[in-house]
From TrEMBL:
<dbReference type="GO" id="GO:0008495">
    <property type="term" value="F:protoheme IX farnesyltransferase activity"/>
</dbReference>
<feature type="transmembrane region" description="Helical">
    <location>
        <begin position="162"/>
        <end position="181"/>
    </location>
</feature>
<feature type="transmembrane region" description="Helical">
    <location>
        <begin position="232"/>
        <end position="251"/>
    </location>
</feature>
<dbReference type="GO" id="GO:0048034">
    <property type="term" value="P:heme O biosynthetic process"/>
</dbReference>
<dbReference type="InterPro" id="IPR006369">
    <property type="entry name" value="Protohaem_IX_farnesylTrfase"/>
</dbReference>
<feature type="transmembrane region" description="Helical">
    <location>
        <begin position="64"/>
        <end position="87"/>
    </location>
</feature>
<feature type="transmembrane region" description="Helical">
    <location>
        <begin position="41"/>
        <end position="58"/>
    </location>
</feature>
<keyword id="KW-0808">Transferase</keyword>
<protein>
    <recommendedName>
        <fullName>Protoheme IX farnesyltransferase</fullName>
        <ecNumber>2.5.1.141</ecNumber>
    </recommendedName>
</protein>
<keyword id="KW-1133">Transmembrane helix</keyword>
<feature type="region of interest" description="Disordered">
    <location>
        <begin position="1"/>
        <end position="21"/>
    </location>
</feature>
<comment type="similarity">
    <text>Belongs to the UbiA prenyltransferase family. Protoheme IX farnesyltransferase subfamily.</text>
</comment>
<feature type="transmembrane region" description="Helical">
    <location>
        <begin position="108"/>
        <end position="129"/>
    </location>
</feature>
<comment type="function">
    <text>Converts heme B (protoheme IX) to heme O by substitution of the vinyl group on carbon 2 of heme B porphyrin ring with a hydroxyethyl farnesyl side group.</text>
</comment>
<dbReference type="InterPro" id="IPR030470">
    <property type="entry name" value="UbiA_prenylTrfase_CS"/>
</dbReference>
<feature type="transmembrane region" description="Helical">
    <location>
        <begin position="135"/>
        <end position="155"/>
    </location>
</feature>
<dbReference type="InterPro" id="IPR044878">
    <property type="entry name" value="UbiA_sf"/>
</dbReference>
Length: 316
């Protein structure tokens, strides 16, 4: 015969399991919504925003302004990512690389994703307008439209140059960061804009080389699908040289000091070396590791923008 204590404990077990199950479901749902925002892309975009704000100020900007701009920028980029996941859900189901996305697994419904994207976008624009200025808010709206309409809906499935012109959306955070501080735009943020614009193809095309079969199966005409590896490697080299050259233009235009000059030159030389290495391996038909250039490009851009943020804080 069971004691009263055993009876109570037995009755509590289903309740405890139910609480744990609900907590697990809430966690899965939260992570699914977070996945829609493409957090790695958001992280990279925020890396370039804060240094731009330091350069615009010529020192340390107001901390709340930086936080408010980063929050607004994250919401804006997250909205664009969610719209992209919704619009590309058909091809995501055909690609191994995207099999884990929540609209493919069924963790979220199409309607949930679309509502989330609209709400996040509206909040981001209102937030930036309220806590920064209307210029930054307008640029945020422009970034969302560029990524969702210009890239995802128009370019991505129609041309191998999709990532070149579609990459304009990824350049907008530097304009938003500058505008949040100054309320207007000038030459330095446009140079930063061009650095990211020229950097995007040699960053993304190596990734498309690795996942060429995925893009081909989905009918997406990435350059690696419609051109040979050697042609892709050559284009990566050309854009890498243009990126580094553009980064050096910031020295006279923004009055950058020795720290930025050394970092931009040294990291640029390393970036260019890696792209040449990729090309040489492709033309010799040897084993190619395009992700080495992909990850290296992220390290390069991070170093350059860290230098952008550090240089104005130094007395030399």
């Amino acid at each position: 015969m069971r004691s009263a204590r055993e009876t109570v404990e037995t009755a509590q077990e289903p309740r405890e399991r139910g609480t744990e199950d609900r907590a697990a479901r809430y966690k899965r749902t939260f992570l699914a919504y977070l996945s829609l925002t493409k957090p790695r892309v958001v992280e990279l975009l925020l890396v370039v925003t804060a240094p731009t704000m330091i350069l615009a100020t010529g020192g340390l900007p107001d901390l709340w302004l930086v936080i408010a701009t980063l929050i607004g920028g994250a919401l804006s980029a997250g909205s664009a990512g969610a719209f992209n996941c919704y619009l590309d859900r058909d091809i995501d189901r055909l690609m191994n690389r995207t099999q884990g996305r929540p609209l493919v697994t069924g963790e979220l419904t199409d309607r949930q994703a679309l509502v989330f994207a609209w709400v996040l976008g509206a909040i981001s624009i209102a937030w930036l307008w309220l806590f920064t200025n209307w210029v930054a808010a307008a640029l945020s709206l422009g970034a969302i439209l560029l990524y969702v309409v210009f890239y995802t809906m128009i370019l991505k499935r129609r041309t191998a140059q999709n990532i070149v012109w579609g990459g304009v959306a990824g350049c907008m955070p530097v304009l938003i960061g500058w505008a949040a501080v100054t309320g207007d735009l000038s030459w330095p943020p446009f140079i930063l804009f061009l650095i990211i614009f020229l950097w995007t193809p040699p960053h993304y095309w190596p990734l498309s080389m690795k996942y060429r079969d995925d893009y081909q199966a989905a009918g997406v005409p990435m350059l690696a699908v419609v051109r040979g590896r050697a042609q892709v490697g050559l284009q990566v080299i050309l854009y890498a040289w243009a990126t580094v050259a553009c980064s050096l233009l910031l020295i006279p235009i923004a009055g950058m000091g020795i720290v930025y000059t050394v970092v931009a030159t040294a990291s640029g030389a390393w970036f260019i070396f890696e792209t040449h290495r990729l090309y040489n391996l492709t033309i010799r038909h040897e084993h190619v590791s395009p992700m080495r250039v992909f990850h290296g490009s992220i390290a390069y851009l991070t170093l350059v923008f860290v230098a952008v943020g550090v240089d104005p804080l130094l007395p030399f």
